[in-house]
Amino acid sequence: MSRRPLRTLLAAGGAAALMALLPISAHAAPYSGGNYGAYGMEGQYPTISSCAGSFGQVGPTQRFENMALKYFYSGSCGSFARIENSRANCAAVLERSNNGVGRADGWVSETVDPGITYAYTKIGNNLHGRVSRALLTCDGHVLAETGWY
């Protein structure tokens, strides 16, 4: 066997393997910082089977122009933020405080996917004395926020 067909076969196989690792469609990636992920349930979306249906909206919907910010809480799972009717370059952000004083120690955000107008964050664990709040940010600016719960 000559080297040329073997190289071609290896290149084609490598390209196929790379394509298998790429997502089929583009989705916005969640971002996080501080010590987010330090507590149970953090890093999970609120749709996981053990939490699905256990969240209720807390506080009123906050608005900026036509966009809406909502904060949801579950006594067994934690909380998450959701934005609706959002424009591009906006994100739902959930900040979590370890000690309940309302100073963010960890945060997670989710940007709006192209072609849709909403986004929601992964769960923040604001159980056992921790608190959290939701933010609507666009182009790096906070446009709406909830209180700490």
Could you explain how this protein is built, in words?
With 149 residues, this protein is mainly β. The chain is 13% helix and 36% strand. Mean pLDDT is 85; it is low at 1-27.
Main beta-sheet strand count, sense and barrel state: 5 strands, antiparallel
Strand order of the largest sheet: 1-7-6-9-10
The amount of beta strand, in percent, is 35-45%
Name the helicity range: 10-25%
Low-confidence stretches: 1-27
Q: How many E strands? A: 10
Rounded mean pLDDT is 85
Give the helix tally. Answer: 1
Class computed from helices, strands and strand pairing: mainly beta
Alpha carbon gap, first and last residue: 69 Å
Order of helices and strands: HEEEEEEEEEE
Radius of gyration: 20 Å
Oligomer: single chain
From the spread of the alpha carbons, the general shape counts as globular
